[in-house]
Amino acid sequence: MREILNKNRINFIIISAFTVFVAVSFVVNFSIGENIFKEQFYSFFKEMILFLPIMFILIGLGDVWINREKVEKHIGKDSGLKGIILVIFLSMAQVGPLYGAFPVTYLLWKKGASIRNIFIYIGAFCTIKIPMITFEIGFLGWKFSLLRTLLSLPIIIIIGVVMERLFKNKSFEVKQP
Amino acid sequence: MELFTIIAAIAIIASLIADRRKTWKGTKKGLLMFVKILPAILSVLILVSIFLYLLPNEIIVKYLGKDAGLTGYVFAAIAGSIALIPGFIAYPLAGILVKTGVSYPVIAVFITTLMMVGVLTLPIEIKFFGVRVSLIRNTFYFFGALTVGLLIGLFYIL
């Protein structure tokens, strides 16, 4: 508990200040404070508070069940093109916001995925998740979605390769929060 | 989301049947990670809420609009990078933008930076990757997103 407090001083200051601000706003009927809480914060909070705990439980279960050798073989250092295709498919099936992808990269890293594949995972997560694409097609059309997907793919792969070059021999790690 | 919950429930039940102690150990570990990251997530959500309140849709439409020219692109890239707008809000907004006459190239820059760069989520990213890696990733993705956005734009202009 103390460790959490020490590592999050600024966050706790922000949270306390916001709590006081919202509480006071409701007491004195200050509409800006009420709106920020009801229309903005609460809608995000609702989306997050159900999804993230389940996500983290799955990460924890993945940690105890998934076999490191297998992950390493399929998406580790020497996994090549097959590894790239695998992580892309893995991330396409994901849901949720980007900050939900970071814990997954922690799990992948711990189980032996390569630096390149970790960043390709993040890139594909940002750009070509299937739930997001279906939404995108609905609002912006097929042409836009198709173009964006086809153009994003090579770029995220290139960035993955560059990130691996940059950090391969440095002390790269994905930390457990 | 529902599909995710169903798949998660099946996975947890399967794990319970296979090995109760292992399941408990994994669950505990996962929830502990969640508790540790929660303060960072809450403060990011607070900052995002304030940011989005100060920057309502009408203002976004105004600055990205037809007559915005080059400013439109710059604003799209900056707003997209900083904002953390979930897809279910961002795409309807993009749909409105298209209807109000914002050009596809500008939309493309906005959507790609929105998805690939996360300035407001940096505090969370840093907890996993450290400051250096997070900054470098976001910088690369910023230019990557710009490239994708502008290339999409080219296809629409041609």
Describe the protein.
- The complex is a heterodimer of chains A (177) and B (158).
- Chain A has 9 helices and no strands.
- With 177 residues, chain A is mainly α.
- Chain A has 2 domains: 1-51, no CATH class; 66-177, no CATH class.
- In chain A, helix 5 runs parallel beside helix 7 (115-128), helix 6 packs antiparallel against helix 7 and helix 8 (130-140) packs antiparallel against helix 9 (142-167).
- Chain B has 158 residues and is mostly helical.
- Chain B has a domain at 55-157.
- Helices cover 85% and strands 0% of the residues of chain B.
- Chain B is built from 7 helices and no strands.
- The longest helix of chain B is centred in the C-terminal third of the chain and has 36 residues, at 122-157.
Count of helix runs of chain B: 7
Please report which band the strand proportion of chain B falls in: under 5%, 5-15%, 15-25%, 25-35%, 35-45% or over 45%.
under 5%
- The beta-strand count of chain A equals 0
* H/I helix tally of chain A: 9
- Global shape of chain A: globular
Notable features of this structure?
heterodimer, A: 177 residues, mainly alpha, 2 domains, B: 158 residues, 0% strand
Short characterization:
Chain A has 177 residues and is mostly helical. Chain A has helices at 2-7, 9-27, 31-65, 68-75, 80-92, 101-110, 115-128, 130-140, 142-167.
Give me the secondary-structure topology.
The complex is a heterodimer of chains A (177) and B (158).
Chain A (H helix, E strand, L loop, with lengths): L1 H6 L1 H19 L3 H35 L2 H8 L4 H13 L8 H10 L4 H14 L1 H11 L1 H26 L10
Helix pairs in contact in A: 2-3, 3-6, 5-7, 6-7, 7-9, 8-9
Chain B lengths: L1 H17 L1 H35 L2 H8 L5 H13 L4 H13 L4 H13 L5 H36 L1
